[in-house]
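Notes on consecutive records. When two proteins share a document, each keeps its own sequence and its own token line. Never mix them. Below: protein one.
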Amino acid sequence: MLQSNLKVSMQPECIERSATITAIKGSEVSLTVLRPSACSHCEVAGHCHASESRLETITLDRSQLPSDIALGDQVSLEMRSSLGMRAVLLTMVVPTLLIIAVTILLSYLEVGTLAQILIALGVAAAYMLLLWLLRDRFERTFTFTVRKK
């Protein structure tokens, strides 16, 4: 059975994960983090493919890490839980509300069903494109604290 490496840190309202330094290239450092599925604690997790964890690579600026890190070091990666909730809001809740609002508005305007669907999905796609275009700003907002173990 897989165990989650997600835990609440000693600091209030922080989420902590273990990571491994996998590459150091100039001013960038790559870390590999085991990202467990949400249902990894389930009793049947070993028999269900939905409960599989996956490795995720995160690239950070070297200035965000302790100066004495080396390839293969284990580090603790922390992020405020409020930032995680903000990410969920921006990537899941807002697009869903946009789709619903556009569909309702187009319904009142008596636009055909297929057109409603296509326009609503187009609005959601435009919103996601906007998020992608603003990714540099989000990289400054969504920051990690890294501590060597």
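Protein two starts on the next line and is unrelated to protein one.
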Amino acid sequence: MKILSIGYHLSQPRSIKEVEHPNKMQIETIQYAGYNQFWVEPNSAREMASIAAHKALSGTGIQTEDINFIIAGQSGVPDYIGIDFSCQVGAELQCSDIRTVNLVEGCGSGISTWFHAASLASTLPSGKVGLVVVAQRVSEAHQDRFGVMNAILSDGAVVAVVASDDWQTSSPTLHYLAGDDMSDCRYVDMMRIEYGGGCQPVLPEGYDARHDKLGRERIMDIYQFTPDDLNAFLALRQDNTIKIIKRAMAQVGRPLNSPFLLQTLEGVQSIKDLCRRMDIVSERSNLNLLPELGHVGCTDLLISLKMLIDKRDIQPGDDIIMSTISSGLKWGAAIFHYDRG
């Protein structure tokens, strides 16, 4: 499978310095983690993804009737309970008689979409393409965008047009080489949103998500962690990130050539530590995009990829590692090669 084009949408930038929040220490912690701004989308995830899809298709010559499948992944609260995000995107493009896959796997959707896409792309009819769509839009009524560990949640969407390996093009393309994921299900409650589902469907009167327990405090409370338990948990997060990356790399069948690392934008120190342990210089990562983007959930990796290609930091001939960690608790990795065409 190869990626033919990518389009993304980020709407309104906001400075973290302008944030009014009841927990000033949390905002200071987020700033210390390297974040300067975040992005807010006033419209729906459906509209946001539609804009990204039209950008991805623009200039390719590909028409709606050429789209064979849409695979959509989402982090955050959907526009409506039970809505199928992949079909929402298809509705915006006026698609009918099309295959769709809808994933709601938190940030992990940024990896798991590729497994389905690679499978479907291998059976694409001649002249047909697929779309991989990932989006995050925070429902601030349900979730504090400043309250997830040491990150700040941004809204954004990104779409990739994908085709089978035999699609002919003279332009550089991204080839999917391998991928893998794993879950430690003991931590499924770590980042759950308490209200809006079947157990507690209604927001209490006067509820303000900004007063919820934050980050590590909430984890300590849910799992009755001691400080030593928390340190072991944080080590597990990093160790499993490396484990899944190495598992994906082993599938490629050759050593990666000075790879570029695209990691979930979960804080400067976390990415620096991962680069150090993977023996990758931090300049060959998406670390420098963190202050600008915030943490855009499952879109982090694909938006980073598009931005770094546009900046020419990623060059034809480069191998690329995509790596994410998400609620579940889930780790995933995928390997791409940027081919000269």
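For the record: The first strand starts at residue 2 and ends at 9.
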